[in-house]
Recover the amino acids of this structure.
């Protein structure tokens, strides 16, 4: 009886306490209204020194916690003064933490985040400035499960092209120049890398493979700081991968300046061998080419933000680039008869000078109407101008089997110039009501492109003949609007959205007086769902995307690369459309599993066609009918013995392409297996060692099947100068396994390709951080993300 009575009394007390409990939600920011992540929220009873409840703020600085009346709630974070308040202050709190001037400079924050996080709408690679992740951005992104870099410059995620951004800002560079930029981006400046495989409707619908966003480390306090990175490298034959990068930040009161500059120099070397069989005429072509390409790449980023007050910010961001290369290509093409006897040899020497330069100016204004409701307006306006020059000189001669010159040698002079102007305007509105966040906005853009192509053929008498000179102009206008809702229902997050885009294009060739006009209206729905319970996290997402062709793909110019190889544009390209579905699961942040499906129509990819009489292969971009891809990935990420970070990823996929060639349906399918093993060892006295292994079996990208390859990267380094500096040595592709071998077979197209480039290299890197504080870089997005990303 006593036990029953005691139980009833305890139950009554528990019910009374439960009835008094209430939930307090809020946001923790600093004095500049910037969210503070992982701030500690604690609740104390009156006159007690130990908290009875605690929570942490999320990535947006938000928290939710149950409290009793008259208790004390405290918010704290390293580098800031504690904030305390009575729980009767209200159900919604907007907490502003003030900087601790005495201790902030001495604070060193060491995170305990897992290397890989599978969130409900993205995969996150947490770098946190750790040099063990790689000495630069290229080595960092290689660690992302499902991502691979083909031929050293083609970045793909799960077999699809992907949009690259830095701090939510698009990178408008060709593939080679982009790699040079990422090589000069020190990992010491990288906070994390996000892969948004199904971006919300707030983002442009352009891009079949989603978005890869590299976020730099955030700064915490006014003052100045900077980072210097120096890298020296040597590839297969020459010095390559040499770069220097400097970043500076300065803030005084309401004015904030930031600057980054990087320069890369070197000489790249590549050997390519192509073995072609032309069955209809009983001949075989063995083409051997050697590339030598000295290059210089420079990139500048300068920004200024002015804080009128805590709710109003105006900023200007200028980005510029200059990239130049002077490559030579020596080609020898041996022509065999069906008896495997050499019939003749075609020699060619190509001198190619390329210069790309441009700038973009972004004006940004952010107005916070109500910080408690997260009600804000962001306006962006962009102006960009980009110039691309491609001058090519080609000398050809035909030799008999005995080495005598046959026929008359001739030279080709081909000069191309492309001038692109981009105008863009967009505005975004956000508001939160209870646990629901609404986002909406509009965007308008205009692109004008002028292309001039001069092609002359010269003989021994130095007489010139026109050989396909042409002009080509292109205009494109896009009007877009979107609405997006993020709903938090306890442990469930639901985020549906819809984007509509109206596109108008006009292609005009003055040379042949030909005009092609198109206009189309498309809807792009998307939805993401996340659910978390204890150690289990589930996610599901769907999005529809569009793949508009890069502007250079539309130029109808025929550029002769060698005696039997021509690159040609296609002004009749149509946009591709992709439906992406992805399911994900994570357990304790250590085990991940995902399943994805991609269905695409009018896929834009490389297509080769062979002219039997001339034996010339024409390479162009074309719309393949359809592609279906099924993929699954398993991951394991953990820390062993407090010194060994390990990451294991295993992927299995099946990709199937269908397209028409010479009035026949071609079907190419391939099942692929990929794996990666990432090991990072933290040793005593600041030493560390890493080993990264990657491999894949046969995999298809459109009409081409890449054969198996693998590579091993090793690195070692040490923290010096009291942690302000780091020195490291990296050995990439030690056993030279990244040789690209592929085969292409359909219709009368039958050839194998062997490509060997500077994948095996050694790099020595030194980085140094200086300054008296850290400053947080304000997040901003440019209005011309999609347009800039398609300029090359």
């Amino acid at each position: 009886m006593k036990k029953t009575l005691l139980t009833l009394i305890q139950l009554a007390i528990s019910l009374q306490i439960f009835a008094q409990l209430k939930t307090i939600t809020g946001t923790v920011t600093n004095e500049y209204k910037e969210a503070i992540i992982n701030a500690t929220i604690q609740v104390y009873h009156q006159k007690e020194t130990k908290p009875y409840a605690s929570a942490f703020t999320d990535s947006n600085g938000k928290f939710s916690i149950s409290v009793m009346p008259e208790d004390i709630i405290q918010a704290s974070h390293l580098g800031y003064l504690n904030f305390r308040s009575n729980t009767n202050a209200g159900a919604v709190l907007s907490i502003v933490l003030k900087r601790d001037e005495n201790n902030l400079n001495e604070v060193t924050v060491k995170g305990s985040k897992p290397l890989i996080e599978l969130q409900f709408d993205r995969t996150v690679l947490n770098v946190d400035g750790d040099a063990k992740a790689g000495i630069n951005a290229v080595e960092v992104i290689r660690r992302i499960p499902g991502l691979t870099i083909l031929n050293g410059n083609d970045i793909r995620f799960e077999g699809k092209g992907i949009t690259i951004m830095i701090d939510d800002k698009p990178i408008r560079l060709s593939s080679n120049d982009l790699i040079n930029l990422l090589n000069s981006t020190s990992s010491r400046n990288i906070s994390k890398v996000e892969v948004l495989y199904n971006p919300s409707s707030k983002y442009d619908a352009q891009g079949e493979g989603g978005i890869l966003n590299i976020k730099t480390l955030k700064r915490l306090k006014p003052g100045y700081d900077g980072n210097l990175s120096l890298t020296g490298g040597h590839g297969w034959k020459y010095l390559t991968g040499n770069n220097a990068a400097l970043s500076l930040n300065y803030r005084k009161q309401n004015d904030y300046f930031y600057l980054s500059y990087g320069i890369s120099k070197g000489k790249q070397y590549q050997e390519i061998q192509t073995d072609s069989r032309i069955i209809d005429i009983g001949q075989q072509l063995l083409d051997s080419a050697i590339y030598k390409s000295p290059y210089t790449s420079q990139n500048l980023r300068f920004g200024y933000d002015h804080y009128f007050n805590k709710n109003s910010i105006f900023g200007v961001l200028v980005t510029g680039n200059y990239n130049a290369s002077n490559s030579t290509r020596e080609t020898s093409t041996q022509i065999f008869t069906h008896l495997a006897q050499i019939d003749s040899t075609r020699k060619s020497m190509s001198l190619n000078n390329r210069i790309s330069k441009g700038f973009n100016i972004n004006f940004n204004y952010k107005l916070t109407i109500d910080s408690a409701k997260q009600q804000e307006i962001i306006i962006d306006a962009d102006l960009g101008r980009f110039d691309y020059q491609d001058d090519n000189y080609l000398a050809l001669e035909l030799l008999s089997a005995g080495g005598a010159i046959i026929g008359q040698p001739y030279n080709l002079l081909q000069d191309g110039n492309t001038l692109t102007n981009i105008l863009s305007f967009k505005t975004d509105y956000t508001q939160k009501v209870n646990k629901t966040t609404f986002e909406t906005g509009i965007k308008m853009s205009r692109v004008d492109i002028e292309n001039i192509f001069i092609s002359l053929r010269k003989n021994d008498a130095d007489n010139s003949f026109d050989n396909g000179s042409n002009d080509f102009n292109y205009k494109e206008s896009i009007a877009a609007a979107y609405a997006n809702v993020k709903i938090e229902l306890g442990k469930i997050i639901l985020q549906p959205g819809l984007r509509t885009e109206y596109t108008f294009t006009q292609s005009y060739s003055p040379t042949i007086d030909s005009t092609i006009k198109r206009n189309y209206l498309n809807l792009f729905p998307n939805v993401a769902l996340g659910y978390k319970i204890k150690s289990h996290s589930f996610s599901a997402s769907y999005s529809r995307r569009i793949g508009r062709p890069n502007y250079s793909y539309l130029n109808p110019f025929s550029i002769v690369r060698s005696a039997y190889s021509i690159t040609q544009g296609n002004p009749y390209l149509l946009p591709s459309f992709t439906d992406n579905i992805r399911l994900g699961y994570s357990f304790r942040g250590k085990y991940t599993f995902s399943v994805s499906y991609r269905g695409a129509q009018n896929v834009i990819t490389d297509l080769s066609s062979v002219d039997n009489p001339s034996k010339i292969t024409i390479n162009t971009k074309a719309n393949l009918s359809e592609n279906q891809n099924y993929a699954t990935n398993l991951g394991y990420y953990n820390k062993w013995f407090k010194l060994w970070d390990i990451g294991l990823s295993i992927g299995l996929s099946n990709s199937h392409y269908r397209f028409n060639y010479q009035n026949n349906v071609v079907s190419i399918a391939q099942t692929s297996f990929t794996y990666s093993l990432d090991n990072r060892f933290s040793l005593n006295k600041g030493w560390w060692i890493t080993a990264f292994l990657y491999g894949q079996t046969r995999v298809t990208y459109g009409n081409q099947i890449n054969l198996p390859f693998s590579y091993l990267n090793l690195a070692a380094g040490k923290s010096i100068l009291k942690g302000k500096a780091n020195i490291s040595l990296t050995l990439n592709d030690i056993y030279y396994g990244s040789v690209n071998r592929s085969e292409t077979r359909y219709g009368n197209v039958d050839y194998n390709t062997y490509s060997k480039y500077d994948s095996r290299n050694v790099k020595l890197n030194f980085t140094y951080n200086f300054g008296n504080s850290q400053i947080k870089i304000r997040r901003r997005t440019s209005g011309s993300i999609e347009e800039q990303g398609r300029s090359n």
Residues 57 and 63 are 5 Å apart (CA to CA). DSSP finds five helices and 45 strands in the chain. The longest helix spans residues 2-20.
